[in-house]
Amino acid sequence: MRCVSTASKRVSARSSLPGPARFPLEQRRSCGRGCAAPEINRCFPDCPELNGLGVWPPERRSHGIGTAILRAAEAHVQRRGYRRIGLGVDDANHRAGALYLRLGYQETGCHYLDRYHYIDEHGTRHEVADPARFLIKQLPAAPTRRGGSSRVSAS
Ligand SMILES: CC(C)(COP(=O)(O)OP(=O)(O)OC[C@H]1O[C@@H](n2cnc3c(N)ncnc32)[C@H](O)[C@@H]1OP(=O)(O)O)[C@@H](O)C(=O)NCCC(=O)NCCS
Hints:
Bound molecules: coenzyme A
Structural class: alpha/beta
Distance between the termini: 7 Å
Number of domains: 1
């Protein structure tokens, strides 16, 4: 398990569907592809990545949901024996960047192009490459019932 994905960027296209309020958190899944960007995968091959975090509809933001998702993702990878989690944030996304830094994520100095696509309301596919940077948060070892450290394999 290398990649934790919540509400991917596809959600932005889906938000035009009727009744978006029914999907405040959209999808949530774990997958094994490693970090999505090859530049980051090379630098941090074993680091789980939280990818595509988003809270929809926008009126639901600033109520602690993003923080709760981040904490749940951190606990999720921690229980599996990982001692760090990373995420990418677009250079232009100052609010999200500030939130991550407040929550303990640290600069890695790794910059890359965040490549993704979306399909607009006419069905046209758009390829995007946004300059972004990668942040990492160190996680303590998961506590066990007996007070020791978890020894779950991180493969
Ligand atoms: C970035 C994002 C995921 C954060 O989710 P969120 O639910 O808004 O995050 P939180 O509410 O936990 O924290 C964000 C803000 O609310 C504040 N906050 C936290 N808990 C709060 C609460 N109970 N009541 C009011 N405000 C709260 C935080 O201090 C923070 O302040 P800010 O507005 O100055 O940034 C969300 O804003 C979003 O979907 N943005 C658009 C997509 C995006 O940019 N995704 C990031 C990709 S890297």
